[in-house]
Design a protein that fits this description.
The chain has 297 residues and is of the alpha/beta class. The chain contains 14 helices and nine strands. The chain has helices at residues 17-26, 38-46, 55-59, 72-79, 85-88, 103-114, 128-134, 145-156, 170-198, 203-211, 218-229, 238-255, 260-277, 285-292, and strands at 8-11, 31-34, 50-51, 64-67, 94-97, 119-122, 125-126, 137-142, 159-166. The strands form two sheets. Strands 3-2-1-4-5-6 form a six-stranded parallel β-sheet, with helices on both faces.
Length: 297
Amino acid sequence: MRSSLPKVTWIGLGIMGSPMSENLIKAGYDVTGHTLEQDKLDRLRAAGGTAAASVAEAVRDADVVITMVPASPQVEAVAYGPDGILENARAGTLLIDMSSITPQTSIDLARAAKDKGIRVLDAPVSGGEAGAVEAVLSIMVGGEQADFDEAQPLFEALGTTVVLCGPHGSGQTVKAANQLIVAVNIQACAEAVVFLEKSGVNLGAALDVLSGGLAGSTVLTRKKDNFLNRDFKPGFRIDLHHKDMGIVTDAARTVGAALPVGAVVAQLVASLRAQGDGGLDHSALLRTVERLSGARL
């Protein structure tokens, strides 16, 4: 029964937030949403959700508030202040931030929310737009065990791998590591694509056989068609991966971890963004390798 499930408010209905909120509606949750784009609110209504005109209005009667916004400044903007979540949600509300932000921002948010009687989980995701649509995301969570247990059914409507990684901020730390691995993997695949094409090999055949061996990866499987078709319609934008590489390199410096390959790839992502390609999918790292290899794009 719908009435037996917690009432959910979803803040941020972008590339990831829209399909994720719709999956909760399909699972029977009563979802109220707020975002800045009217067309996204119309989409939520069409899926069976309720649109709210402000954060304050959206969170007032919620049992669970989920945020899915681009970066730390946006999380802080919707959480704090007189019109924010902490001032307007009821005591006892569970706030689940599924954005990818700095671990320290998550720790600070949990501390501030505790003073208001609001519980917090940081729960960033991996899997991109396709994973969000198909409800097969990997969800890495930081926070208290009891809050995680309470949120587990909701997480299972959104993803297939759901793990409590440790205290507040741990989910964000694991997400930073995820983004490091993904970026380095995409870069390696992009270099292989340019090498294969310049060598005159049938690229489709080559990527098929590579996918079946030790070089195979979720990245290669998900991004193979992007490489083959030069289709860089954003599933996860370079702008956002640039932000995430800043998070991981800064966090690694704080704890004294050397990321020599990660640092190079972070600069290549920054270079691609500086070339005006920040709005493209992160598989567009291929364009950087092509430029370095003499192509005029």
